Structure formats: structure tokens, C-alpha cells
């Protein structure tokens, strides 16, 4: 475990050293959240309720979705692709720890820095706009559990996409494809209840909703306590599924390292 703690520390220090990447990403997400905020405000001027959401609920959702989206940015596909193309991935495989474990704890260290900064900034912004009314301790605790499970789901998805870099030099396309799918199907752009019936049924069987929609719904109260616990259970199941899929895909993808001269 000491080895993993060392990687976590390295990830934290790396996040602090290259904080400009995090700041740039946070600003991009902030612009998206600001645009969504004013778009929804305009919509709710003419409609009091949209698919069960009032302006008060939607206002909270936008801020919490912003928090979920910024807390754990990860984004290691590009770096993985560079290491594969240069052959540096061999150095990672020679280390006395599993590659995925090393990657996870390194990203966990970076996420610690990101989460602390984001929670303070977005928390202050949320309270200044929405106030503390309606915040319940049990929901906050469930939200934090769901948020960290969402982090596990996001890591699992990104890990699978990063392995695609073994088959293509176009890591930019892989990264952007993953970002589009994640943002759209996770509920980062709009709540999944706004999706039409057929598309919503498809989204409900995918893991993406566990990244943003489930934690947001728990915190703002659109999920009952029973639905919240069920959502957390589904998140845990998806982490297990993604972990197994990642292990199987790794065995297949790592076999093509020799194509790059490794």
C-alpha cells in the first residue's frame, strides 16, 4: 500500500505543479455552466415547470453538475497515448505495481487537489445564489458517497478509452469522443429526465448517469431516499463491471505493444 500512497503523493504534486491545466479546464466548465444557467433561466420565465423541474431545482442542478464535472477531470488518455507511441509504456509495465492501480492512485492524488479547490469555489458560489435552505446532512453524506463512486465510474470509462490508444495514434479523437459521450449522457449538459422516452431508456442502462446525474439528483432532492440508495447500488455495480471490462481489454490491448517496438 505504501507504493500506491507514493503514487498518490506524486499525483497530488503533479496536479499542483501543472495547475494551469486544471484552471483552464475549470474555466471552460464554468463558461458552459454559466451559459446553461442563463438558458434555463430564460426557459423558466415562460414555463413554471419542465419535466418536474422548477427554476429553483434547476438552478441547484446546474451548480452541483458543475461541481461534479470539475471535481475529477482526470483526462489521462493523451498522456497514455504519448507514452505508448514513444515506448515509455514499457517503463510503466516494469514497475512492481499493476498499471491500472498505478494510474488510479496517481489520478486519485490529482483529484484530491482538484476536489478541494472546486468544493470551496463552487460551494461558495452555490450558497451565494441558492442559500443553505434545503441542504440536509443525510443527503450531503449520500451525495459525497455517490460523488466518489461516480469518480470510480469515470475512471473506468476513461481507462477503457485510454486503451484504445494502443490501436490508434489519434489520441485527440479518442479523448474528444469520450468527452462528448460523457458530458451528454452523464447529465452534465441537461438532466436526463429531459431526454425523450426512447433515448432516456437507453441512457438509463448505461454507466454515464452515475457520474453527474445520480449525485446531483441525490443532493437536490429529486431522488427519494430509496431511489438514492438504489442509485448508489447501481453505481457500485457499474464500477465492478467496468473494472472487469478493463482487465479483459488490457489483456488484449497490451498484446499490441510489440507493434510499437516495445
Automatic annotation (TrEMBL):
InterPro entries: ABC-2_transporter-like (IPR010390). Pfam families: ABC2_membrane_6 (PF06182). The chain crosses the membrane at residues 21-40, 103-129, 141-168, 205-225, 232-250. Keywords: Membrane, Transmembrane, Transmembrane helix. PANTHER family: SLR1174 PROTEIN (PTHR36832:SF1), SLR1174 PROTEIN-RELATED (PTHR36832). This is ABC-2 family transporter protein.
